[in-house]
Design brief:
- There is one protein chain.
- Helix content is 43%, strand content 21%.
- The chain contains five helices and five strands.
- A five-stranded parallel beta sheet has the order 2-1-4-3-5.
- The model has no long low-confidence stretch (mean pLDDT 95).
Length: 156
């Protein structure tokens, strides 16, 4: 199952970029044997500043047809890392070819796009900058693959 990160904003070189690249590399390496990956990252940017609606239109164009749509949103489900791993495994085992994780811009995800989501995921009740949310998602993807592979990376 291919994994797509469809995100608002361009990530420049720096510590966040280094962390994301490292965790996605680890995910690709671990996930390959599990039928997970590769990961692709599609960055969109509303250069005209038209807001969430314009960002949603750009994000919709970035979504692979038929993909599971998983939006990161503060109103989403609070789940454990093992449950996140299990969810990825369920989508894979159900024959879903693609899952697209969407991270919105500074104002979040347009309500209409959020309403289309198959899954809403929250990293807690706090709001995180979208660049840190990308780091956290990349790490959780790697952690999920490690859990599914039986690796000692995730300790209970």
């Amino acid at each position: 199952m291919r994994v797509h990160l469809c995100v608002v904003g361009r990530l420049r070189a720096g510590p966040e970029r280094a962390l994301i690249d490292e965790y996605l590399k680890r995910f690709d390496r671990t996930g390959r044997a599990l039928g997970l990956g590769p990961v692709s990252v599609v960055e969109v940017e509303d250069k005209k500043g038209a807001g969430m609606g314009a960002e949603a239109a750009l994000l919709r164009r970035a979504l692979p047809q038929g993909a599971v749509l998983a939006c990161l949103d503060e109103r989403g489900a609070l789940i454990t890392s093992p449950n996140f791993a299990a969810q990825l495994g369920q989508w894979r085992d159900a024959g879903r070819g693609d899952v697209a994780f969407v991270i919105g811009g500074a104002d979040g995800i347009d309500p209409a796009l959020r309403a289309e989501a198959d899954f809403l995921l929250s990293f807690g009740k706090m709001v995180w900058p979208h660049m840190l949310a990308r780091v956290m998602l990349a790490e959780q993807l790697y952690r999920a693959a490690a859990i599914l592979a039986g690796s000692p990376y995730h300790r209970v």
